[in-house]
Amino acid sequence: MSLTIFNEDVDLPSLQVDIIENWFNEVIVSNDLKLGDISIIFCSDSYLLNINQKYLNHDYYTDIITFNYSRRKVISGDLFISLDMVVHNAEKFSIPFNEELHRVMVHGILHLIGFDDHTEDDIAEMRFQENLWLSKLDLNH
After folding, report:
1. Are 83 and 43 in contact (CB under 8 A)?
2. Exposure on the CB side of residue 74, measured as CA atoms within 13 A
3. Is 112 left (phi over 0), alpha (psi -120 to 50) or beta?
4. Which of 25, 82, 99, 104 fits a 20 to 30 Å CA distance from 12?
5. pLDDT for 117-139, tens place per residue?
6. Nearest to 81 by CA among 58, 117, 106
């Protein structure tokens, strides 16, 4: 089981992959699940818009699209993340780029686990989970 990082038409952000993989594992195991294979594909707004149009029939920009390949209790999937949107949202909310990047990453993991963000209650629970897990991310190890 592993975390693999890719990039399409953008430079890779600086990440501590081993720490991120351990963090994802902690999020997943705390939900009585197991970490499978997770891929993160960093890309541009236009790249992600194309995926949104082609595979989801959505014609709008977004920060992340998650493809869930989980089976039984093993969490696996692809997280396509627009770094353009991460930069935009970090500036919009006056937060550091890395904080927004980690929020989007754990948001994708939470989707793979089964959390959703369609209703107000879902959104509130998703934000609670994001904040909880962001508070547990320790990049100083």
Report:
1. yes
2. 8
3. alpha
4. 25
5. 999 999 999 999 999 999 999 88
6. 106
